[in-house]
Structure formats: C-alpha cells, structure tokens
Amino acid sequence: MSYKLPKYIPVERVEIDTIGVEERVARLNTRSIKKESKVEALKMALTMMDLTTLEGKDSEGKVKQLCYKAAHLHDVFPGLPTVAAICVYPTMVATAKKALGNAKINVAAVSTAFPSGQGPMSVKLDDTKFAVDNGADEIDMVISRGKFLAGEYSFVFDEIAAIKEACGKAHLKVILETGELETLDNVRLASDIAIAAGGDFIKTSTGKVQPAATLPVTLVMLEAIRDHYYKTGIKIGMKPAGGIAKSKLALQYLVMVKETLGIDWLNNELFRFGASSLANDVLMQLVKEQTGVYQSLDYFSKD
Amino acid sequence: MPRLEVLKTYKMYIGGQFPRTESARYYALADKKGNVIANICLGSRKDFRNAVEAARKAFGDWSGKTAYNRSQVIYRIAEMMEGRKSQFVNELVLQGLTPAKAAAEVSQAIDLIVYYAGWADKYQQIYSSVNPVASKHFNFSFPEPTGVVSIIGPETPSLLGLVDAVIPCITGGNSCIVLASETQPLGAVTFAEVLATSDLPGGVINIITGTRKELLAQYASHMDVNAIVYYGTDKAEIKAVQENATLNVKRAIIRSGIGTPGPELINDTLETKTTWHPVGY
Fold it and tell me: Catalytic residue among A50, A140, A200, A281, which?
C-alpha cells in the first residue's frame, strides 16, 4: 500500500476574534465590482460550481437531466463554460458518469453516512469505496460532529485519514458542517484537523443544516488554509456549500478568496461552490448584462 | 413646555417591509407655496427588481388562497383604512386638495375597496363558461390570475387612483408592483402602512416611489413581469410600454384614467384557461 496513514498529533488551537471576522467580512462586502469584471467573475463562478442534487427523491432521470444541464448551461448564450462537477449520492455515481460521457465534468459523491455521519466506520468505508468503484472523481465526506463536540479529536482525525485512504485517487473534500460546530473557534480547529488528516478540500456544510455556508465561517476556514500554506507550502481547496443562491453573494465569496488566499486559489482546482440554484441566478445575471433587461426563471431550464 | 414635532419618514413598501431606496436618493416634495413637506424616496431599477422578486414569491400563496378568503382580506384593508381616514385627508390637503375634495376622495377609495372585496368570489362566475363543442368533450373556460403585474399608477387622483389600480388586480389573485404618483406620493406611503396592518401577505402589493421617466422602461421590460397596467395619455410613454412589453409578450393594459368600477377591471389582469375533458368513452 502506497498511502501512509498520518498519525494524530494534537493540533494547536487558534482562537478566533469573532467581531474582527465579522468586520473584515463587512469591509470586503463593500468592494465595488465594475461591469466587465463582474461578467468575468460570474463566468468564473460557473466553472467553479458543483451542481448538486442530494434529495431522497433523486431518481436516475433527475440525475441525467442535471448532467445535461451541467454540460449545457444555457445554449442560447454562446461561449459559456461548463460547471466543475456534479454532486450526487453514491448510488447515482454510475448514472452520472455515464450521462456525462466525455464532458470534462467530474462526479463528486457524498459519502460516510451523509448528511449526519452517524454510522459505523465499516459502513462509511463501504460507502466511500462503493462511490470510488463506480467512478467518482471526488468524495465529499462528513465528519462526526458529535465526537468532535465531545472533544474526541483523535477519533475525528483517524476517521478522515481512513476515508482518505479509501478514496485512492479520488479527491477528498471534508465537510465540517459548521452550522453544528457552534463557535468559530471550533470551525478553525475542525479545519486544522481536517487539513492535517489529509483532506484535499475543506467544505462548510451539507446543505441539510441551517445555517449552512456563511461568509464569516468561510473566512475562518480560508485563514486555516492560508496558515497551512505558509507553514508547508501545500495548497488546500475550499468549498462553501448550502444557501449560496444569489450571484451577488457568489461574487462576495470570490472577493474574499482573492483577498485571503490570492489569485492562485481562483480556479476550480482549489475553489468550488456547492449549489443547486446558484447556476441559474448567475446565468440570469449574465443574460441581464448582455441584454440590459432583468430576467425570469421561466426562460432557464431547471436542470 | 414646547415639544419637537416627530416627522414621518416616507419610505417604500417591498415584500411587506419598509425599506428606503437602495440608491439612497430622494426628492423633495413641496406644497403649492414651495415649502418642503416631505422627502420622498427616489426609487431605482434595483428597488423595482427587488419588488418583482418579492411579488413573485408572494404570488403562489396569494393566488392559492380561496376566493372567499381573498375577499375577507381585501375587506380588512378597507377596515384599516377607515381607521386612518383623517391622516389620508390631511395628506391630500397638504398636497393641495381642498378639505372637502380630500374627504370625498378618501371615502370613495375606501368604498371602492369594499366594492371589490365583494367581487372577489363572484367575478369567476361571470367570466367562466361551459362551451358547446362538436366532440365528446366537456369543455369549459375559467379565469386565472396572470401572475406578477407591474402598474404605472395615475398621477391624480393620487389615492383613489392607486386603489383603482391595485385592488382589482389583487382581487383577481395577482401580485403587483405599483409606481405611486410622483407629484402626490404621500397617500401611497400611508396606504402601505394600512396594508402592513391588514391581513394582506407581504409582497402581494409593493409600492415604489420615484419618477416615471426613470422607471417606465424597467416596469415594461422586466422578463418576470406578466402584465403591465399603464395609466396616462402620453403617446411616447404608451409606445415605450407596448414595445417593451413584447419582449416576453406581457399583457399591456392602457388606461387613460380611472374608469367606472366593475369586474372588467378585474378581468383585465386575468387569463382564461380552457379545459377539454373527455366524456362518454
């Protein structure tokens, strides 16, 4: 076996100044973005999108439709990119893989008893291996928040490390479910543990818990990535997910990434949006910039 | 001891909230002698966009209510308005009407609301029909709300005109965004306060203050608006409304002024749906 499991070393706690984080976010949100930059940023946001469907009612038909949407965002608008990936449950990976064909779009699968993470380790490993065997390019795992809040950090660390091993070549995104972590201090600690345990990406939320992704939480996670980069030179990716439905908010995230981590992170290798309805809002804004007229969802395919 | 008077801030009404314009602009409203009586929000196209979003969100719930329930809610608006009659009269007087004319306009406006509250569960019978067809079908037509309606309200009478514009529209189950009278906007803002304290869900009626010149094209061109009602006689404006309405084939209803009350005004923003139901197979 080529992959060497990392050993848990207690990570140093970094305390977060909550008020400072909020002020920094508020300051960044006042940045004005001019029209040309906005259009480019919106197109960039499309290339960073993980188009997501994670419903109990998902069917093969729904996933096929979503895959078509991923490759054909809005065909009447020439020159649009495709999204980065489709994000589905493990049972839908094979369907998505087949539907996407040769399109350069990855398939990401949520695993480890998503969204609660309350399952035995054997189930979590099987879940992950099943998705990888079916061709998943990326795995979005959830951490055990209960164990984390109980202070069993080594358990959380070992779990992430074990899943990373099970992923093989697939990229691993670690979902912290920040809405359940209570404080920004915890968010930072969980980020540091996830990074140390081998996560390629850290991700805010499952989208099933409120609050999902927020700007302050994302800033704290971006700072964890930045500090890790300064220490080791290794670039970890970031994926805010859940509740990002508007273009304006997406642009605010991009500004924050640029200001915290720099231009190196402004691509879909290192930054993703997890979203289901954001794509259409971005498309509506792009068409609005082109035609000068506010758009209606009536004229954009749902999936 | 002398007391500092508390002046009212006149704001817009969007999605059940009272925001100032996002553009942070305002215009001064003066009485006949040139004294400033209020600063009014100078609404922007983004305010209008926000209002359309709110109206779209509110549409499903409002159009899904039973006709009887809509009737009760509209009647409640009249009740709330009756309680603030004197405020409406005062504002019309401030804007130049005589006290007698102002009182008459407010009473008429309240009565008009009661009138349309009565129609809410009755216009359906008038505009429905069972149609004779030459095949084995039970064929019937009935009216449905058009959706989100943008309204360029009349300049005068400012209050009665506003009621004439929005109440028939929402009686039919639509949600709307109305541009208040530019020269006499006070009543519209107070009317918004009446709406907020009645049982009308937020977003069903949205009220923007500002200028026709700036907002007319936006009202007519927005792709998520299904019909536009225009009050006025300016040929260039009518042409602009009709041309912009073609973008998404929205219905354009042109009214030269307030007309005779009647179900026709409700029907203006209704769409007739016809169903062919097979029978006898």
Answer: A140
